[in-house]
Design goal:
Blueprint: H1 15-34, H2 41-51, H3 58-65, H4 69-81, E1 85-89, E2 97-101, H5 103-124, H6 129-143
Amino acid sequence: MNHYSPENFSLTQSVGFSINKARNLLVVEMDTALKDLGITTQQMGILLSMRRGIAATPFELSRLLGIDTGLMTRMLDKLEAKGLLERSRSVEDRRVVNLQLTKEGEAVAAQLPNIVPLVLNRRLKKFTKAEFEELRRLLNKFLAE
């Protein structure tokens, strides 16, 4: 089913506009909350993914977080320069780069579960539990291919 046509399309009334605006709002609020840790919202996703064992290579992180490999490399460079992660070549396949959090990276990542929910809950405070679950369901449906 087509929901938009050239006749009824309006930028500010489009789903893409609303999703992008919501994302930008969350990024600003999350970046403010993470400022004292010296990381950004995007860097937070990397650290949490690594800490939880969801991803351990740049390629896995790129796919999981929806970030192109060039930007991922630059973000990893910054995290490495901050002493939060280390890179090493795989002994099985030298083309593969493995990532590991440093002690400092682990310490920063360990603080994130105390910060991130506060930001999200502030934004979701007007939602009922049912509305929250529906929003998650619909976003997952939107993201499914």
